[in-house]
Write a structure and sequence with these properties.
It contains 10 helices and 21 strands. It has about 425 residues and is α+β, with helices and mostly antiparallel strands. The chain is globular. Bound molecules: flavin-adenine dinucleotide. The site of flavin-adenine dinucleotide has 40 residues, from helix 1, strand 9, helix 7 and helix 10.
Length: about 425
């Protein structure tokens, strides 16, 4: 008999990305018995290509495709997508969240005290990012260094491992909070694929999950779903909340590349600098991928001529706030077409990037096909969850990107950490 089998906990947290890890850490810290069920494993991060593919690029699992072949990437591993994120910390749109009864100003301030959030020191910003920033400023843009959640003392120069996890413990990831939760007595169960929430008389009483094909039940007073923008609506639907997963966003992006004469773009911290055109719903940053990721995206658009001068490239990411639309199917497939408005926004960003790259002396400019890394809005505030993040099933909460109620277009991690703190306080006060 496993320690979690048919056992009762105070709280079950499903998924260990930033949302779930924060709730688990905060509640274990005050003595709640917490069970964390995570679909992935917690192999130590090696920063290798093979490990990245295994955790974030398995088609149908962590790499999902829309009908337009937009590739949606998510991390299926302890720590979720934070293992592969670029650690950019942008403030939430406070007023928008407040219009749904969610005030997280204090929690954001607490997270900023707790985590190492700051712009990178100059020595950690690569030559391509610097060149792009100089060129953008020269054209009059307020292009700036972006705040990062990074222990800069551990960070290495000329390193591109962020995209492949960070083996040097420089980038903060949700695994840190999972470790803190476990040292405060939380139980972490890996390879646990949660299928549904067990409901009795409209009260959530536990979950059904499988490990290597064998099914288990665990019970709790409170259940928190933090399986991410794709994972959570699938579980909600199989638990009776059928309208979850409709009309979502994923913040689509393209990368615009150009080539200069000198070697500029080698290995460097991605997304070190940028600009957010909040009104237009367009965010632009430098983004130097590791060479193998660059090659994959370059081959996808048949620009074989651009494969080899990769060390001379300057790359700019255009990420947009897309309109809500499409749906997540019951099996976790992604159905969504980019609207004409979304495509125009991407083109608009592309034109701005062309000018910045051209001004930096880059030639042979081309753009990649669409990709996306922020699925959310699949269990929206004011629709699937109330202002306490509770669903219509009592004691069943959601805390991840799913709850964001409107088109987004921003790095969401700081928001999720703050929502996690707020939810933990609510649960602690209520129970
Ligand atoms: C390449 C990349 C770069 C990014 N850069 C940034 C950035 O710079 N700044 C920023 O703020 N954000 C960034 N993001 C986005 C950020 O990482 C995510 O928005 C964030 O991790 C979402 O947190 P979450 O808690 O909603 O879910 P996730 O991080 O997706 O976590 C969900 C967890 O649930 C688990 N799970 C899923 N289904 C189940 C199930 N059925 N049973 C049990 N467990 C399950 C998953 O394995 C995963 O661990 C980036 C993402 C990527 C991929």
């Amino acid at each position: 008999m496993q320690i979690y089998e048919n056992k009762k906990f105070d709280v079950i947290v499903v998924g260990s990305g930033p949302g779930g890890a924060t709730v688990a850490k905060e509640l274990s810290k005050i003595g709640k018995r917490v069970l964390i069920l995570e679909k992935g494993t917690n192999q130590p991060i090696t920063g290798t290509v093979s490990q990245t593919i295994g955790m974030a690029m398995v088609p149908g699992k962590s790499l999902l495709f829309t009908e337009q072949l937009l590739a949606l990437v998510r991390g299926i591993t302890a720590g979720g997508s934070s293992i592969f994120y670029y650690a950019t910390a942008i403030d939430p749109p406070f007023e928008m969240l407040e219009s749904y009864g969610v005030n997280i100003r204090n929690e954001v301030a607490e997270v900023k005290m707790e985590l190492p959030i700051a712009v990178l020191k100059d020595s950690l910003i690569g030559p391509a990012a610097m060149k792009i920033m100089e060129s953008a400023k020269d054209l009059g843009y307020k292009w700036e260094k972006l705040p990062k959640i990074v222990y800069q003392g551990n960070c290495r120069k000329a390193c591109d491992k962020c995209t492949m996890g960070c083996p040097y413990h420089a980038k903060w990831t949700a695994r840190e909070f999972i470790d803190l939760a476990c040292s405060a007595n939380a139980t972490l169960v890996l390879k646990a694929d949660v299928k549904k929430v067990l409901v009795e008389k409209n009260n959530a009483v536990g979950v059904l999950f499988s490990i290597n094909g064998k099914e288990y039940h665990s019970f709790s007073d409170v259940t928190v779903l933090s399986a991410g923008g794709i994972g959570t609506p699938v579980i909600l639907r199989s638990s009776g909340i059928k309208d979850a997963g409709q009309g979502f966003f994923f913040d689509p992006l393209i990368i615009v590349n150009g080539f200069i004469e000198d070697a500029a773009g080698g290995r460097e911290f991605p997304m070190a600098t940028g600009i957010n055109f909040q009104e237009d719903g367009i965010m632009m940053t430098d983004l130097m991928w590791p060479s193998w990721v660059y090659w994959l995206f370059t081959m996808e658009v048949f620009r074989f001529d651009c494969l080899f001068p990769y060390k001379r490239r300057l790359s700019i990411m255009i990420k947009i706030r897309d309109q809500l639309g499409g749906r997540i199917t019951g099996k976790g497939c992604v159905r969504k077409q980019l609207s004409a408005i979304d495509k125009n926004k991407l083109l608009n960003g592309y034109e701005r990037a062309r000018k910045i790259l051209g001004n930096a002396g880059a030639k042979n400019i081309f753009k990649t096909w669409y990709t996306a890394t922020h699925p959310g809005g699949t269990a929206k505030l004011g629709d699937i969850v109330d202002s306490n993040l509770q669903t219509k099933i009592n004691h069943l909460y959601v805390c991840d990107c799913s709850v964001i109620p409107e088109p987004w277009g921003l790095p969401p991690t700081l928001t999720l950490l703050s929502l996690g703190k707020r939810l933990a306080t609510h649960i602690a006060e209520r129970w």
